Amino acid sequence: MDLLYTAHVPPGDGPFPTILALHGWGASAHDLIGLAPILNGGGALVICPQGPLAFEIGQGFLGFGWFDLSQVRPPSASDIERAADEVRGFLDGALARYPIDRRKIVLMGFSQGGVLAYEMALRQPDRFAGLVALSSWLPAEVADTIPLQSGLENFPVFVAHGTQDPMIPIARAQESRERLLKRGVGLTYREYEMEHGIAPEALRDLVGWLDSKVLRTILIA
Question: Does residue 42 have a pLDDT over 80?
């Protein structure tokens, strides 16, 4: 596990349903860990790795990212895949270190982290029980490199986006929705009157989706 990370480990011996949460550009490993007591009632193991790219965000404070963002050019598919490979290696290390139930790993990404979540889950759906993309997008450059394949039919996906998002316009989420539907995933798509964040109603719907569409279903199966 070469990346710095934070973790919420429930009491008990496990194995635990697990959420691998990937932060957005300029955030850190501490950004999403605050959701841990809410997701699955605190009963999930939540692991939040930190992006390897460090940069100053003002007055000596550092932010972190997964791949470079530039006003000059969009990220390439190779940039994104390289970052995704780092997270895949991190997940392999987590599987060796923590009592993770391999049938119940949910990949969750916010903003830039959601791009990696899309890349990883769509390329290897057999590794994950579900995908969550919050205030994010599925770039055409990524979608075009992932061949249509079996294993995605009805694969659980939850997408939440703000209609007032100034950083990633809602049109990009809607384009992502169409790319997902072409792959036959079990898509739950929601738009909220919010900016670039996670509004309370979005969090409420996410918690309900995790319970009804992913974790409880697998527990009964």
Answer: yes
- Expressed as residue numbers, the domain containing 178 is 5-220
Domain count, the chain: 1
CATH number at 75 reads 3.40.50.1820
Q: Which two tokens stand for residue 35?
A: 């959701």
Query: Distance between CA 81 and CA 64 in Å, rounded?
Result: 17
What's the chain's average pLDDT? 92
- pTM greater than the 0.70 cutoff: yes
Tens-place pLDDT, residues 143-162: 998 888 777 889 999 999 99
Which token pair is 84?
Answer: 């995704």
Instruction: Using CA atoms of 88, 90, 95, 100 in order, give the dihedral in degrees to the nearest 10.
Output: -90
